[in-house]
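quick one before i forget lol
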Amino acid sequence: MIVCLLLTQHVAPVGADESLAGKACRSVHLQYQAQEGEWFHNSIVVEKSAPGTYFCTGGFSQGYLGIQQMDSDKHLAIFSVWDPSSGDDPKKVDPEKRVRLLAKGPDTRIGRFGGEGTGGQSFIDNLNWKPGQEVRFLLHAKAMTAEKRTAYTAWVRLPDGPWQLMATFSTLSDGRLLKGTYAFIEDFKRNGASAKIERRSYFKNAQTRNTSGEWVPVTKARFTADSNPSLSIDSGTKDNAFFLATGGPVTNTHVKLRETMSIEAKAVPVELPEVPEAKPLKQG
């Protein structure tokens, strides 16, 4: 996957990357105006999807969390945390500076990634989410002050199901909690035909629990996009949810690029799962 690591730079077709024209749907983002916190909750309802799509619901300064449609039958969850170093070869990262795996769920597959930065990655391959379902996500951050690291934990939850632990990863971040939260839709198929298929999803109940234990709803988000010159993008609000759309017949009829939109939302305390014990595990 080629994900926009510097979201604030990818906002308009000015200086557009013409190599992406007609090849892929344009990546579109919601940059949340949210407090820094220990917990972040968000949920998504995918309305339209296609093979090779990433719906990110829990992006933050050190990683991202969401669901993907790989092909017509494989619908998985993914959670990734970046190493602090630059470069794209995971084997060249100093072992002392790598992301460390501290816990994993029973259905989680673990690995390392490269090519878009490097780091630790986890998957629930058999999540089998479906369009029309509300899928919920949780992130937790715990500062590891002595090690200058933060432990980040992710869970995913299907309707009428329990919270499923994905993984806990730690990375060198000087104890930074959850900040810079965002969401996006990305077409990583990029084969030309994929650009002709619409993707659309609704993001709702985004909220942060701050260090005082208070849940604070996210009521504002800024609409941005990557350097793809496609104009087949849109964003807006509906029923107190934010939405993103890209590809196919989509036109920008609602919120314009770079604009900030608002919803009316109230904080709803979330029943939190137990945070797993953090202990170093062998990582693939």
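fyi Residues 139 and 154 are 5 Å apart (CA to CA).
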